[in-house]
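@channel sequence for tomorrow's demo:
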Amino acid sequence: MKLNQLSDNVGARRDRKRVGRGPSSGLGKTSGKGQKGQKSRSGVAINGFEGGQMPLYRRLPKRGFKNIHRKQYREINLGNLQSAIDANKIDASKTVTVAALQSAGLIKTPKDGVRLLARGALNTKISIEVAGASKAAVASVEKAGGSVIVAALVKAPSKNSAAQAKVEG
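structure tokens (generated this afternoon):
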């Protein structure tokens, strides 16, 4: 067999539909789109429309609450912290801060602070400063001989808040 003799199996390829080519083609005049109206035109998008009936997304009750002011923490596990210490990315003799975690590549940005979680094991004595920590994580760090300092992240005041302070004062 040669490359120039290769061909598809019979029925593997179909000819494309040629619409709007007369009544004998079966797809003439309206091209299989029915009669007039929005759906027979291009650019149709009627998602969720149920023909005038109240749509499902409006019939179902609204439930719950989404707090838009909720604090978002970066989470870091003890196992990841220990592996960074083992790889000499973090100096265990100094206090581990958000800046140290960023330079080690454990977090990108602190968001509203860093929260320490207990997944994994820590066997190095460290002092770590975070915005929050689980009870199990604090217990694990203290068991290894270290300490956890829970302090809220202080963000730099924005220009807007400085302008408001001048107006109030």
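heads up for whoever presents: The CA atoms of residues 18 and 27 lie 8 Å apart.
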